């Protein structure tokens, strides 16, 4: 069988060869890595594959391919195929991308805290360089802010890991030993561990008020960088919440309490409304969409909070929430990648991404306008697009948690729809802005956008597809999460 | 095993749903092909619907099939078709009216450069509407509910280069979205209170407690208010008139706006007395408000739009009467009668606008009866039916509702009857301004009759508007209702209606200064109505522009200044402390030794202090 050790090894070899030939074929190696990862995921579609490779003193080499990591690895594969298809970037960028894909593959599969932390930090390196080297006007500021901000989060996570290790007196850093031992620690330590992990994951999510790195990083990064940062890096936080934080919390002595779930729920709702309000005021399309990304991810925060709040009291709602969160991971990754690449095409064609200087693009660029319209509709969760499945599952499940407080989420949903429609009205509809002159868009860009759009459609119409590919039942997965 | 009836029922909406990309695609070869393909698809849908209706529904077969949308989840999310009497009679009407209107569009849109897109969107709309009606679960209704809303958005903004159209499309989308989120909450509540089984339309009865039923029904009705343009979310329809007239006829008169009424009828079992009271009074308020506004508006399409709002008010009020199956019968009969005569009025208006270069102000029309006799006769029949002239469709549908409301309370009965008076007043104001007198503009002077392909649908709909009353008794019993027969009291609404007609003629059918004098005499009241009771102002200027945009600006300021400022400040603190501490790196060994000694002393002092304080032992 094609095992995980081979996957990481293969990705390393690709990287070595790619650097060895001076990055001449880096673009193709990225695609190759993407395809390899996807095939690996599909071939290992059994339930919860566990791979143990012994240990190096206190580090254990233990990997797991669960439901969430399967989906996230598919997303990594998607980005690995989409970016080379859509963008013509320098070889350096593609080598960075290879490195990023390698780190994420490790991150999403490892079952050892120290290895997890190492991969967590490794992801920062390519993102930092991509923003810092190929970024826009303010790139140094954005890159430093991004790096330091997320690094502060990681420090608390590391402290949390060490707290668990020393306070439990464990012999290694394996998640399998550290997580179940949570409740053996004093309560202050437990709360510190929970705080540390939550802090790191919420920064990465990003959740308001820990989101300040997002607008700068997304806006200053080149479009190809924005695509992978928005599609993949935010998933690290969500993955952490779903796969690392949830079990930690459930095995701590706080499990069953309502404080932490309520914090998560409130943060989720607050992020949704806050990001929508700020986005409504933006004039820069790229900046507006970076807040959209925050809004989408806030549904996941909300769903995890709701899931932890309900526990087993309402299995139906818990399932809807968890399922919705996982589906939202995948769908947000594809949709936001599509949106940023389309805005990139738009900026290339018109020379601006300022909403006030656009208008009536449907007349000159009908194909691009159609694609932008479709991606925006996917973003506001219109049925038929994948965004709908995740969002509706979370909203329906959230009713059981929130009851009439759901009104706040619904306000957020309406505000989100409003600024999307507002932006559409000002950019692609309305009278044509004659100052733009006679513009065209690159055909290849448009064709390559059909790929993610087709995926979004497919998942939206037939969401059960991911179950068929991964042959996994959510409940089975929920049972085996620890 | 799938039965032929199930496959056929699926095909009613699946055929146009799958076919719509081809309708657009074939337009890239030749644009006229999309018109023919689109019309043919809806025509075939209608034929299948008619076949299913006569072969199964009339024989008492309820077509029913569900599958699980998310098989990986233990929770069953059913999707499928449910064709009972209610849904099949809706399907029959929706596919028939859609077919006629799309046929009319072949003439109406024949010169538009983007007509292939138009027909594609119309076909997708019809498919979604048919799907909505045939859905077997609340979630599937919601899916199609959103799709019809989306198509309404794109079709209102079809002439996207007009700023008004782009803005109206936005408004329609956001306002209906407000209703939609209540629908979502309603589905969530239904799932919670029934452990999931109420998702299916047949399982609604599994919500047992009254307060739970009230919550679910009110939330669902919130969705209906948005979609069916009831007070206070009625503000989007008048603006939506910026779209092509055929769109207004199909979406904003005959089908989509009645989806809310259908939803309430479909989920009628969970409506408790409390929620029925809300439904009733929302309907009544809507009838009166929009009827009043209809009298002072000058745009022919907006008059029809307010009339639509008011007529849907009757459907909603009929449901609110709480007479069980009789309420559903009254309401759906009014829905279908309204679909025929309002589609007729819109198509006639479309034919007129086509002839007079899209001038929509009724003050610029006049004398068109002579210029376009068939169209304006169609409009006359439509106006008669709309105002409920005896023995037209509107008479049977509306007066039955007014009559049934007498058993509820005199107050409601009186308001509904006054609504009838307002209806006939604004209908005939519009009709007389359009049809008689002298042409009041060049465009009206040179109007000419439209082509045959536009007149055929008008003729058929006019025939239905006249004879639909014949089906009344059968219709009610088909839906299981049995309204009381008309009594002598029911002469009063007819008298009021004739009064409206008479005043309409007296004030608008000839040269007269009465309207002007009334407007000046009751100036405040006139302005209050003319400004649409300031509801639009409240939503647009106060809530959207002041409150939401203001809050958004404040949040953005907080984001930039406070949050961004704090982060930059913390960055600066570290940077400055770095540059301060850098000064001690002088490079002289003696100074380093000095610092080491100072540090040692400080450390020892700290140790002493900590020992005294008892922190360390």
For the biggest β-sheet of chain B, the strand order reads 1-2
Which protein chains are joined by the largest interface, and how many residues does each one contribute? A-B, 59 and 53 residues
Q: What's the Cα radius of gyration of chain A?
A: 21 Å
Specify the biggest β-sheet of chain B. 2 strands, antiparallel
Rg calc of chain B: 31 Å
SSE run of chain B: HHEEHHHHHHHHHHHHHHHHHHHHHHH
Q: Beta-strand level of the residues of chain B, as a percent range? A: under 5%
- Biggest sheet strand order of chain A reads 1-2
Beta strands of chain A, count: 2
Number of helices of chain A: 20
Give the CA-based shape of chain B.
globular
Task: State the secondary-structure class of chain A.
Answer: mainly alpha
- Percentage of helical residues of chain B? over 70%
The amount of beta strand of chain A, in percent, is: under 5%
Task: Tell how many strands the DSSP assignment of chain B holds.
Answer: 2
Helical/strand content category of chain B: mainly alpha
In which range does the helix fraction of chain A lie?
over 70%
Oligomer: heterodimer
Short recap of the structure:
Chain A has 482 residues and is mainly alpha-helical. In chain A, 74% of the residues lie in helices and 3% in strands. In chain A, helix 8 (187-204) packs antiparallel against helix 10, helix 13 (315-350) packs antiparallel against helix 18 (443-461) and helix 15 (366-379) runs parallel beside helix 18 (443-461).
């Amino acid at each position: 069988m094609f095992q995980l050790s081979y996957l990481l090894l293969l990705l390393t070899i690709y990287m070595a060869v790619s650097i060895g030939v001076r990055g001449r074929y880096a673009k193709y190696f990225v695609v190759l890595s993407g395809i390899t990862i996807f095939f690996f995921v599909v071939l290992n579609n059994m339930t919860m594959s566990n791979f143990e490779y012994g240990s190096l003193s206190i580090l254990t080499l233990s990997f797991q391919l669960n439901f969430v990591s399967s989906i996230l690895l598919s997303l990594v594969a998607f980005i690995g195929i989409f970016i080379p298809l859509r963008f013509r970037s320098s070889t350096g960028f593609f080598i960075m991308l290879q490195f990023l894909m390698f780190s994420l593959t490790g991150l999403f599969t490892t079952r050892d805290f120290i290895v997890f932390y190492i991969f967590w930090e490794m992801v920062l390196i390519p993102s930092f360089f991509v923003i810092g080297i190929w970024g826009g006007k303010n790139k140094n500021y954005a890159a430093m802010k991004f790096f330091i901000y997320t690094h502060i989060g990681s420090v608390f996570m590391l402290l949390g890991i060490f707290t668990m290790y020393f306070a439990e007196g464990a012999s290694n850093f394996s998640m399998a030993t550290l997580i179940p031992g949570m409740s053996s620690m004093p309560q202050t330590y437990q709360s510190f561990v929970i705080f540390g992990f939550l802090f790191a994951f919420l920064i990465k999510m990003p959740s308001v008020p820990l989101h300040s790195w997002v607008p700068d990083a997304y806006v200053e990064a080149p479009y190809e960088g924005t695509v992978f940062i928005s599609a993949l890096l935010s998933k690290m936080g969500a993955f952490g919440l779903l796969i690392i934080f949830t079990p930690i919390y459930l095995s701590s002595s706080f499990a069953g309490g309502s404080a932490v779930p309520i914090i998560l729920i409130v943060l989720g709702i607050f992020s949704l409304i806050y990001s929508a309000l700020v986005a409504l005021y933006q004039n820069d399309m790229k900046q507006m969409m970076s807040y959209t990304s925050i809004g989408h991810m806030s549904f996941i925060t909300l769903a995890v909070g709701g899931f932890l709040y309900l526990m087993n009291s309402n299995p139906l709602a818990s399932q809807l929430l968890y399922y919705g969160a996982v589906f939202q991971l995948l769908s947000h990754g594809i949709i936001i990648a599509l949106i940023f690449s389309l805005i990139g095409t738009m900026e290339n064609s018109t020379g601006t991404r300022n909403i006030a200087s656009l208008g009536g693009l449907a007349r000159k660029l009908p194909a691009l306008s159609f694609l932008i319209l479709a991606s925006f509709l996917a973003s506001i969760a219109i049925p038929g697009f994948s965004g709908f499945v995740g969002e509706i599952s979370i909203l329906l499940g959230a009713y059981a948690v929130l009851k009439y407080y759901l009104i706040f989420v619904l306000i957020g949903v309406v505000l989100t729809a409003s600024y999307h429609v507002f932006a559409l009205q000002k950019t692609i509809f309305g009278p044509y802005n004659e100052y733009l002159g006679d513009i065209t868009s690159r055909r290849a860009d448009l064709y390559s956008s059909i790929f993610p759009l087709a995926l979004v459609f497919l998942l939206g119409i037939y969401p059960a597809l991911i179950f068929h590919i991964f042959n996994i039942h959510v409940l089975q997965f929920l049972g085996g999460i620890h | 095993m799938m039965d032929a009836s199930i496959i056929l029922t699926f095909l009613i909406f699946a055929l146009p749903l799958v076919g719509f990309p081809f309708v657009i695609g074939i337009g890239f070869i030749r644009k006229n092909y999309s018109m023919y393909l689109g019309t043919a698809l809806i025509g075939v849908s209608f034929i299948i619907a008619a076949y299913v209706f006569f072969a199964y529904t009339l024989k008492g077969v309820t077509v029913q099939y569900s599958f699980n949308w998310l098989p990986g989840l233990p929770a069953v999310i059913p999707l499928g078709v449910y064709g009972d009497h209610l849904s099949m009679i809706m399907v029959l009407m929706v596919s028939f009216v859609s077919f006629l209107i799309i046929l009319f569009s072949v003439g109406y849109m024949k010169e538009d450069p983007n007509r292939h897109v138009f027909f594609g969107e119309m076909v997708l709309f019809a498919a979604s509407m048919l799907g909505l009606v045939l859905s077997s679960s609340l979630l599937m209704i919601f899916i199609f509910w959103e799709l019809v809303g989306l198509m309404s958005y794109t079709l209102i903004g079809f002439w996207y280069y007009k700023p008004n159209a782009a803005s109206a499309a936005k408004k329609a989308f956001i306002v209906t979205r407000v209703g939609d989120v209540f629908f979502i909450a309603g589905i969530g509540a239904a799932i919670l209170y029934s452990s999931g089984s109420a998702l299916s339309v047949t399982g609604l009865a599994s919500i047992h407690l009254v307060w739970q039923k009230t919550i679910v029904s009110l939330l669902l009705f919130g969705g209906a208010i948005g979609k069916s343009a009831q007070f206070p979310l009625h503000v989007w329809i008048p603006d939506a008139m910026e779209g092509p007239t055929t769109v207004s006829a199909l979406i904003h008169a005959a089908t989509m706006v009645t989806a809310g009424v259908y939803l309430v009828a479909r989920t009628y079992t969970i409506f408790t007395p409390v929620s029925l009271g809300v439904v009733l009074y929302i309907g009544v308020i809507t009838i009166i408000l929009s009827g009043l506004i209809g009298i002072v508006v000058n745009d022919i399409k907006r008059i029809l739009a307010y009339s639509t709002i008011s007529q849907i008010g009757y459907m909603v009020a009929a449901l609110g009467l709480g007479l069980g199956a009789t309420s559903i019968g009254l309401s759906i009969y009014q829905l279908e009668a309204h679909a025929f005569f309002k589609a007729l009025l819109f198509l006639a208006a479309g034919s007129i606008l086509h002839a007079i270069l899209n001038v929509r102000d009724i003050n610029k029309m006049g004398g068109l009866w002579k210029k376009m006799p068939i169209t304006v006769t169609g409009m006359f029949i439509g106006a008669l039916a709309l105002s409920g002239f005896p023995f037209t469709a509107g008479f049977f549908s509306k007066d039955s509702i007014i009559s049934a409301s007498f058993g509820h309370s005199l107050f409601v009965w009186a308001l509904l009857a006054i609504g009838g008076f307002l209806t006939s007043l604004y209908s005939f104001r519009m009709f007389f301004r359009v049809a008689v007198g002298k042409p009041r503009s060049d465009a009206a002077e040179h109007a000419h009759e439209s082509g045959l392909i536009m007149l055929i649908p008008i003729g058929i709909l006019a025939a239905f508007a006249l004879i639909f009353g014949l089906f009344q008794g059968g219709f009610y019993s088909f839906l299981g209702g049995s309204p009381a027969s008309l009594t002598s009291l029911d002469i009063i609404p007819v008298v009021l209606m004739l009064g409206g007609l008479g005043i309409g003629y007296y004030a608008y059918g000839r040269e007269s200064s009465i309207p002007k004098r009334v407007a000046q005499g009751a100036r405040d009241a006139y302005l209050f109505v003319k400004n649409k009771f300031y509801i639009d102002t409240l939503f647009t200027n106060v809530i959207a522009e002041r409150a939401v945009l203001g809050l958004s600006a404040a949040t953005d300021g907080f984001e930039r200044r406070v949050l961004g400022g704090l982060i930059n400040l913390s960055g600066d603190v570290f940077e400055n402390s770095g540059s301060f501490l850098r000064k001690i790196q002088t490079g002289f060994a003696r100074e380093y030794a000095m610092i080491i000694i100072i540090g040692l002393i400080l450390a020892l002092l700290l140790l002493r202090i900590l020992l005294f304080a008892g922190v360390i032992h």
